[in-house]
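re the bet — no i am not wrong, look at it urself. input seq straight from the record:
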Amino acid sequence: MEVGKVTKNDHAHSSHNFDGWRTQFARTRRWHARVQKVRPECARDGMCDDFEDYIYAFFQNCHHLAKWLSSSKAVLHSEVQKLVASHEELQLCRDICNGTKHMIITKPSVDADFYTFRECDWDHIPSLEDRPFAAETFMVRAAGRKHDMFELADCCMEIWYEFLKAHGLDATADG
């Protein structure tokens, strides 16, 4: 092969997809681990832009897992569609993914006009050790309801673990 020449099958050896859906699932798990790692920091110090980026990256990767599962033929596309249709959490995940990636959602699953915000617990009485935003959480409002972003991420992962297990796919292997 000539140097610099790309053949049709070179994509099969790329590190971004070398193990099909497992590669994307491992990436989603790593983003979820990052979100879990910053969660106590957020509770202690308040949200920062980096924490928001981690959360958005998680939801983008989490939503794309559906396409990876059906594209790799690990699960029928109709089964993945049925899963997403039956879980508002995954539908909201899709909206967060598309809203943070494309800015405008043309075909929302839950709410094209969802918004994310930081919410303070005004009942929390700060001590001298508390930072100004120690009682802050990161939320999303969609279709008139509020959701804690960290809890939503945990729920989405749990749904995927259960789905993979139900379809006989190993969700525990590191990728």
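see?? The first helix runs from residue 21 to 45. told u. also The chain has a mean pLDDT of 81. so pay up
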